[in-house]
């Protein structure tokens, strides 16, 4: 089997406060300031991994958006732009990336989600980064568009109670190409109240992949100390 050099980015995401986005009047900061911070952290880890000649960087679950329950699912609405940023990051540094992004949807009638990229101000190099402007005044046009959208189209009672979210793992190669995605089907018990479809807890999944010729399985996970597994999952995970 070919050897690969893997970097494990053991990050803990900056988590947004519970509740909807904090929107000032007039709007002066991004509604996604915690994601800005987590993107900057990701850039730093990728640079370190590339300098260490790693070929793949593995990030944990939720490494960009943090936990998205308790009316924080607005953090999932610009998810496609996070994937675009990571593809660019991988290509520039010539390194593959693996992690997860939570994708969210809006109910019918909520208004179209903006196409503008609220993260286009984030640098893919720490030397050029302004640390995402989170410590500086001002708001970009894209951030302002998103702030106005979230103000005009807040979460409905139904969306808050039963959000439609998909925890999706990705693998991006060193050329920035999205090689594959996997939407989580077996939820860990603390997630079941707010996520739609822990797959590694069932050894059958690993066996199935091995039967298909897989040599390595990347399983990006993020557990809090209170994520005590159900008794049936106290056996080895893989």
TrEMBL record:
Gene3D superfamilies found in the cross-reference section: Carbon-nitrogen hydrolase
SUPFAM superfamilies reported in the protein's UniProt record: Carbon-nitrogen hydrolase
UniProt xrefs under InterPro entries: Aliph_Amidase/BUP (IPR050345), C-N_Hydrolase (IPR003010), C-N_Hydrolase_sf (IPR036526)
Species the sequence originates in: Kwoniella dejecticola CBS 10117
Organism ancestry: Eukaryota, Fungi, Dikarya, Basidiomycota, Agaricomycotina
GO molecular function: hydrolase activity, acting on carbon-nitrogen (but not peptide) bonds, in linear amides
Keyword Transferase among UniProt keywords: no
CDD domains associated with the record: nitrilase (cd07197)
Origin superkingdom: Eukaryota
Domain CN hydrolase: 4-238
Keywords noted in UniProt: Hydrolase
Name of the protein in question: CN hydrolase domain-containing protein
């Amino acid at each position: 089997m070919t050897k690969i050099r893997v970097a494990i980015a053991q990050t803990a995401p900056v988590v947004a406060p519970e509740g909807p986005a904090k929107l000032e009047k007039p709007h002066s900061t991004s509604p996604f300031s915690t994601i800005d911070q987590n993107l900057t952290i990701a850039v730093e880890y990728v640079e370190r991994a590339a300098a260490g000649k790693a070929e793949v960087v593995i990030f944990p679950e939720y490494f960009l958006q943090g936990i998205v329950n308790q009316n924080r699912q607005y953090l999932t609405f610009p998810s496609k732009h996070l994937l675009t940023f990571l593809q660019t990051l991988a290509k520039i540094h010539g390194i593959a990336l693996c992690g997860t992004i939570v994708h969210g949807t809006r109910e019918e009638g909520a208004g179209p989600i903006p196409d503008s990229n609220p993260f286009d101000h984030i640098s893919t190099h720490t030397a050029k980064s302004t640390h995402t402007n989170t410590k500086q005044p001002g708001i970009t046009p894209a951030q302002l568009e998103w702030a106005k959208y979230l103000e005009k189209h807040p979460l409905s009672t139904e969306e808050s109670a039963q959000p439609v979210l998909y925890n999706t793992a990705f693998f991006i190669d060193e050329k920035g190409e999205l090689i594959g995605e996997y939407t989580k089907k077996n939820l860990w018990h603390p997630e079941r109240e707010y996520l739609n479809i822990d797959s590694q807890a069932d050894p059958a999944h690993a066996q199935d992949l091995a039967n298909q010729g897989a040599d390595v399985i990347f399983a990006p996970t993020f557990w809090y100390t209170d994520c005590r597994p159900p008794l049936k999952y106290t056996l080895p995970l893989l």
